[in-house]
Design brief:
heterodimer, A: 115 residues, mainly beta, 54% strand, B: 113 residues, six-stranded mixed β-sheet, four-stranded antiparallel β-sheet, 53% strand
Chain lengths: 115, 113
C-alpha cells in the first residue's frame, strides 16, 4: 500500500516567492497533519484536519501560511510570501481517527530552502 | 500541557553494545498514548511503537524493547546488540486528548563499527 505522498521532495526558492507543498494521505485515513521540523524548534504541529475540516491551526506561524484540504485525498500548505526563516523540513502525516489516539504515519517530507 | 523530555541529545556506542534511550513525559490526560519514531539519515519518520497508558506491559520486537513505567512517567527504548543501521535520530512522542503529537527533541544515536 502506498504511504503518505508529499511533493516536491526538495524546494529551493527566493525570498518573497510563493511556495506550495502538497500531500496525499493514506487512502482511508480521515485525519491529516502538517508538521514543521527545524533545528531550533524540533518537530512542531502547524495544522490538522479531520474529515477535510481544519480543527486546530494554532501552530500556523502567521498569515503568510495557509493550508487547505479540498478533498479526502489532497492537501496543500502554502507560504506567501516566503522568508528565509521558513526554511525547514515540512512533514505531512495521516491517520484514521476512531476515538483514540491512533498512530500517525508520516510522509517523506519536503525540504524547503528559502534564499 | 504535554511535554516530552529526551535528555540524551547524542549517544555513541560500538556495534553489538546494548543502548537505552530515555524518555520522560508530563501530561494532564488520564488516557494517552506514547510513541517512538525513528528518523534515519534519509530523513523520513518511521513509526516504531505505540503504547496505551493503561498497558504497562513491556514490549519486545526483535532487538527492540520498550519499558513503560507510569509511576516515573517514563517510556524508555532499548536496542540490544546494536548495529550500524540503527544509527538515526529517535523521537519519543505523546498523544492524548488533543489529536496532535507532542515530540521530544530527539536522541541522535550513532553506532560505530
Amino acid at each position: 500500500d502506498a504511504g503518505v505522498i508529499q511533493s516536491p521532495r526538495h524546494e529551493v526558492t527566493e525570498m518573497g516567492q510563493e511556495v506550495t507543498l502538497r500531500c496525499k494521505p493514506i487512502s482511508g485515513h480521515n485525519s491529516l497533519f502538517w508538521y514543521r521540523q527545524t533545528m531550533m524548534r524540533g518537530l512542531e504541529l502547524l495544522i490538522y484536519f479531520n474529515n477535510n475540516v481544519p480543527i486546530d491551526d494554532s501552530g500556523m506561524p502567521e498569515d503568510r501560511f495557509s493550508a487547505k484540504m479540498p478533498n479526502a485525498s489532497f492537501s496543500t500548505l502554502k507560504i506567501q510570501p516566503s522568508e528565509p526563516r521558513d526554511s525547514a523540513v515540512y512533514f505531512c502525516a495521516s491517520t484514521q481517527t476512531s476515538g483514540g489516539q491512533e498512530t500517525q504515519y508520516f510522509g517523506p517530507g519536503t525540504r524547503l530552502l528559502v534564499l | 500541557a504535554q511535554k516530552v523530555t529526551q535528555a540524551q541529545t547524542e549517544i555513541s556506542v560500538v556495534e553489538k553494545e546494548d543502548v537505552t534511550l530515555d524518555c520522560v513525559y508530563e501530561t494532564r490526560d488520564t488516557t494517552y498514548y506514547l510513541f517512538w519514531y525513528k528518523q534515519p539519515p534519509s530523513g523520513e519518520l518511521v513509526f516504531l511503537i505505540r503504547r496505551n497508558s493503561f498497558d504497562e506491559q513491556n514490549e519486545i520486537s526483535g532487538r527492540y524493547s520498550w519499558n513503560f513505567q507510569k509511576s516515573t512517567s517514563s517510556f524508555n527504548f532499548t536496542i540490544t546488540a546494536s548495529q550500524v543501521v540503527d544509527s538515526a535520530v529517535y523521537f519519543c512522542a505523546h498523544g492524548g486528548s488533543a489529536r496532535q503529537l507532542t515530540f521530544g527533541s530527539g536522541t541522535q544515536l550513532t553506532v560505530l563499527p
